[in-house]
Amino acid sequence: MNAKNEETRDMQQIAIIGGGTIGISWAAYFLSRGLEVTLWDPNPQARETFNSRVADDLAVLGAKPDEAMIASSQDEAVAQADLVVECAPEVVALKRELLRELQEAAPKHAVIASSTSSLTHTDIAGAVAVPGRVVVAHPFNPPHLVPLVELYGPDPEVVARLAAFYRRIGKAPVVMQKEMVGHIANRLSSALWREALYLLQEGVASAEDIDLAVTAGPGRRWAIQGPFLTYHLGGGRGGIRHYLEHLGPSQQYRWASLGEPVMDERLKQSVIAGVESATRGQAMDALFEQRDRQLMAMQQGLDESVHQGIDASPCLLMVAPNGARRGHADHPAIPLTPDALARDARECLAAGASAIHLHVRDGEGRHLLDASAYREALKAIREAVGDELVLQVTSEAGGRYAPEAQRRVIAELQPEAVSLAVRELFGEPEEQAASGELCHAQAATGCSIQYILYSPEDLETFNALRQAGVIPDVPSLLLFVLGRYETPPIADPACLPGFLTHLDARDRWAVCAFGPTEGECMALAARKGGHARVGFENNLWRPDGELAASNAELVRLARTRIEAEGRRVMTPAEARRFLELNREALS
C-alpha cells in the first residue's frame, strides 16, 4: 500500500497501551464494533486478566464475546496499528517518553491518541518526532458506555480523520480549537463539583441531597441538551435573545455568589462521611454495576423515545457515482474516467461511504461492459483508497447489452462484488438457466451478489427463482429501486412498503432513489432496518432542489439522515464482513 493509501486507510487495527479501567473499556467498545484490538501493559497481571475484564464490559454492551490479542512487547503491539490508544497514568514525564517510543515503533501512518483527562498536547507531545500525529483524545468515563471523545491536535487533517473514525463507530467526538487544561467536559464538571463542595462546606445541604438536586433536576435536561440550548429554551418563545435581555443581569449576580471551597481536612471528612451515608454501605462493584446498567437504560430510553421500534444495527452506505446514462451535460462533477472515479472514491470514503457501485465508460462517455476497462478503473481506485472501500461492479445493460454480454463480463472479471438486475438477466425464460449458473458460480468464489429489483413484481420473480433453485437458496442482498429516469425524476418513499410486503425475512435490503427525495427515502430505509445507496447515478439534487456539489455531499447528507434515525454508518471493515466478502477476491 502506497503512502497515499496509508493516509486514507480505515482504522481497523487498534493497539491499546495500558490495561487499566480506561484501556479495558476502550477495548470492549472497539471489539463490539468489529475492530481488531491488541493490548500491551508492562504489568503481567494486567495482561493476564485483561480479556476476562473486557468480557464483562462486552456483556454490558450486549455484544458477542470477543478477545484482544495480548502482545509480547510494546513494539509488537503497535507494529501493525492504524490507531494507538495510549491509556497510561496522568504523569507528564511518563507520557512524554511513552509517546516518543510509540511513535518510533508504530507505522508512519498510525495516529496516536492519548486518553489524557487533563494534560495538554503541549505537556505530553514535546518529545515526539511528528507532533501532528499525536492527538489528545479524552474519552468520558466509561468509554464503552459514554459516547463523548474530546480531541485536540496541531494537525487539523489528522484530527478530522480521527473524528470521522470515532463518529463512524458511534462515538460523539468534539474538536477543541485550542488546547486547555481539563479540556471541555472536565472543566464543566469541575465547575459543578467546586460549587457542590462549597454548598457542603457551608452546610447548605447534605451530599446526598446535593446529588439529588442534580439528578432529579438539571441532570435530566443535561442528558438531552447542553447549557446553551438549555438557556435558549429557558427564554421561552423568545429564546436565548429574550433570556439574555431580560435575565442576563441575574446571571452576573449569581456568578458573583459562587463559592471557593477550601479543601481542608474538615471538608475532606465531610465529603467522605456524606458519600458513605448516601451510598449506604454498597460495595464498589455493586455501584459500578448500577451505574453501567442505568447508563445503558438511559441510552436505550433516549434512542427509543426518538426512534421507537427502529433497528439500531449499523447501516451500509454505498455510493453510485456515475451510472450508465448521465454525463457532464447533466452535471460537470459526474466521474467518467478511472482517475475521476478514484478521486470520487477517496472523497466519498472520507464522507462516510463504505462501498462504491461502479460503471465504466468508453472514450465517448458511453456505458461500457468491458473487463479491461473495469480493471483499469478498479486499479485506480485501489491506488487511491487501498482496500478500504468495497468495490461493486455492475452488469447493467444500460440499453446497450444483451444478457450474454452481461454474463460474460462478470465471468471474465471475477469481481469481489457485483449487482445483477433480475429483470434484465432473468426476464426471458431462455436466459434463466445461464444467468442462474452465473449466480451459483460467483457465489462459490465468495463474490457478494446484490440483486437489483425495480418493482415488487421483480421481488416476487426473485423469490420464485430462488425457491426453484435457479438462484442460490441463501440469504441475499437486495436493492429496491424507487423511481425512474423521468422529468422530473422524483421517487416516492411510499413505494417502499410494496417491496417489504414480499420480503423474505432472511434477506438484507437497501434502497436507491431518484431525485431530491433521495434523503427522505434513505431515512425511511434506515428507520425500517434497511441500507442505503446514494449518488449521481440516481440523484443529482439536494433535498432543497439545488444541485449537489458532489457525490461526497450526497453521502454526507445521507449519513446525517441515517444517524438521525438512530443508526450509524458501517465502517468499510464492517461492510466487508456484512457482505461476507472473500478478502482475497480483490480485483
Explain what you see.
The structure is a single chain. The chain is an alpha/beta fold and 587 residues long. Helix 17 links the parallel strand 13 (390-394) and strand 14. The two termini are 15 Å apart. 40% of the residues are buried. The model is unreliable at 1-8, 304-311 and 582-587 (pLDDT under 50).
Low-confidence stretches: 1-8, 304-311, 582-587
Taken as a percent bin, the fraction of beta residues is 5-15%
Radius of gyration: 27 Å
Distance between the ends: 15 Å
Class by SSE composition: alpha/beta
What are its keywords?
587 residues; alpha/beta; 8-stranded mixed β-sheet; 8-stranded parallel β-barrel; 47% helix; elongated; disordered N terminus; disordered C terminus
List the helices and strands and how they pair.
Elements: H1 3-8, E1 13-17, H2 21-32, E2 36-40, H3 44-61, E3 69-70, H4 74-78, E4 83-86, H5 92-105, E5 111-114, H6 121-124, E6 134-139, E7 148-152, H7 156-168, E8 172-175, H8 185-201, H9 207-215, H10 218-222, H11 227-234, H12 239-257, H13 265-279, H14 284-306, E9 317-319, H15 338-351, E10 355-358, E11 360-361, E12 367-368, H16 371-385, E13 390-394, H17 403-413, E14 417-421, H18 422-426, H19 429-445, E15 448-453, H20 456-467, E16 477-482, H21 496-500, E17 508-513, H22 518-527, E18 531-534, H23 551-564, H24 572-578
Parallel strand pairs: 1-2, 1-4, 2-3, 4-5, 5-6, 7-8, 9-10, 9-18, 10-13, 13-14, 14-15, 15-16, 16-17, 17-18
Antiparallel strand pairs: 6-7, 11-12
Helix pairs in contact: 2-3, 11-12, 15-16, 15-23, 16-17, 17-19, 22-23
